[in-house]
Amino acid sequence: xxxxxxxxxxxxxxxxxxxxxxxxxxxxxxxxxxxxxxxxxxxxxxxxxxxxxxxxxxxxxxxxxxxxxxxxxxxxxxxxxxxxxxxxxxxxxxxxxxxxxxxxxxxxxxxxxxxxxxxxxxxxxxxxxxxxxxxxxxxxxxxxxxxxxxxxxxxxxxxxxxxxxxxxxxxxxxxxxxxxxxxxxxxxxxxxxxxxxxxxxxxxxxxxxxxxxxxxxxxxxxxxxxxxxxxxxxxxxxxxxxxxxxxxxxxxxxxxxxxxxxxxxxxxxxxxxxxxxxxxxxxxxxxxxxxxxxxxxxxxxxxxxxxxxxxxxxxxxxxxxxxxxxxxxxxxxxxxxxxxxxxxxxxxxxxxxxxxxxxxxxxxxxxxxxxxxxxxxxxxxxxxxxxxxxxxxxxxxxxxxxxxxxxxxxxxxxxxxxxxxxxxxxxxxxxxxxxx
Length: 436
Fold this sequence. Notes:
Number of helices: 17
Strand order of the largest sheet: 8-7-10-9
Order of helices and strands: HHEEHHHHHEEEHHHHEEHHHEHEEEHEH
Number of strands: 12
Number of domains: 3
Largest sheet: 4 strands, antiparallel
């Protein structure tokens, strides 16, 4: 799940998930992809194609056809909301020139190299074929166990790949004349110290090996760990270079990653600004006591009667020794309570009937309450068991508080962006142009 998908709760939901918009989404946007514009945000657009492509990538897509029309409309609405949020963040990211930042360029370069590496290695593995005589031998040995035959073929290919992989990496190192300056590898070395280099721009500095300079010698990584990281980086560089020299074109994947990563990076920066300081989180915690509230829970037994007179008579019978639960099974006007002989189950504080909660909150376990008048009738209750409530400590819920702060800030931020950028909803126009 992308970072944008996790933060789609916004003022947009009040528009997108309203009844009228849900109707438009279910009746005017067909399952067939189209290039009609649904929403415009300045010079950016969300089209029917965008919506359908995002829908197909949704984890709910396989169940989409089994959903009701309302459920389909809600899903489309949520996806459209995410797409609009992404476009708004993209505009802000471009305005902030995040594309020109060293951090963004480094991420794009790492992604590009990773894709080139994957392409080259997949191609390398595809070259491995099981010889006919070896395959015949396997089939004869495992003719009665197909699963074992599959496992044997997989093991053979893996073993062959392992050997081919080692030879390929060594061959590429030689091809690009890679040289490791092992004597320069040290946690105390300057970040711009070149510790490995080769033809075609292959180069590794100490800054590539670790991002943060250790504060003390005790915190510094061991040379063996540094060398292991260097070998991994060198492998990535030579393989990516080989794929690049073969003319492998991954530009479409890189552009797709840029499009997704740019707004996500902006959002990460905003989150850090909003909730990166622990003093901000503690202030929010102190100002919102309900966030740390742990409700009591009661396991309740209860009988509901139609009149106060009847309830008082039943209460007297209970006080004389009759079972509340037996009487509930016979007399309760609450269908659930009657079916379960008065056992209502567990109820959390502040989630049930306030009149009932007030009647039982100070009641001792096993004792029977007085008759309580409620909208459902006159009740008599008892507590079978309880789990006490309380208040969570700040240290135990920092992550939750951080998320609450981010959600609030995100809401306000999206309100601000909608005012700043011209957002035009085209679905009404589509609905007007097309008969329902």
